[in-house]
């Protein structure tokens, strides 16, 4: 999983949903990079994307799916397996 996709999923794991501008702000990524990574996460079934309007302004909202939460948790557990298991290291 790319660093940006991991960052996006980290955010979505801690909130019910997040809008595009918030994800852009917290990751520091460009609009283009966020769009590409959201499309990849959506295609993989890890997130749902809802597009709508807030007044006249377009609004894109994302939320992690159950499959996305499971995949993120599995990835996190795999990363933890690389950490030393005792504190003497």
Automatic annotation (TrEMBL):
<dbReference type="Pfam" id="PF13601">
    <property type="entry name" value="HTH_34"/>
</dbReference>
<feature type="domain" description="Winged helix DNA-binding">
    <location>
        <begin position="4"/>
        <end position="83"/>
    </location>
</feature>
<dbReference type="InterPro" id="IPR027395">
    <property type="entry name" value="WH_DNA-bd_dom"/>
</dbReference>
<dbReference type="InterPro" id="IPR036388">
    <property type="entry name" value="WH-like_DNA-bd_sf"/>
</dbReference>
<dbReference type="InterPro" id="IPR036390">
    <property type="entry name" value="WH_DNA-bd_sf"/>
</dbReference>
<protein>
    <recommendedName>
        <fullName>Winged helix DNA-binding domain-containing protein</fullName>
    </recommendedName>
</protein>
């Amino acid at each position: 999983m790319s660093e940006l996709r991991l960052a996006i999923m980290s955010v979505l794991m801690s909130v019910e949903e997040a809008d595009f501008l918030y994800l852009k702000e917290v990751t520091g990524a460009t609009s283009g990079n966020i769009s590409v990574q959201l499309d990849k996460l959506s295609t993989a079934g890890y997130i749902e994307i809802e597009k709508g309007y807030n007044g006249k302004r377009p609004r894109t909202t994302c939320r992690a799916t159950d499959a996305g939460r499971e995949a993120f948790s599995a990835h996190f557990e795999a990363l933890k397996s690389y950490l030393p298991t005792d504190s003497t290291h």
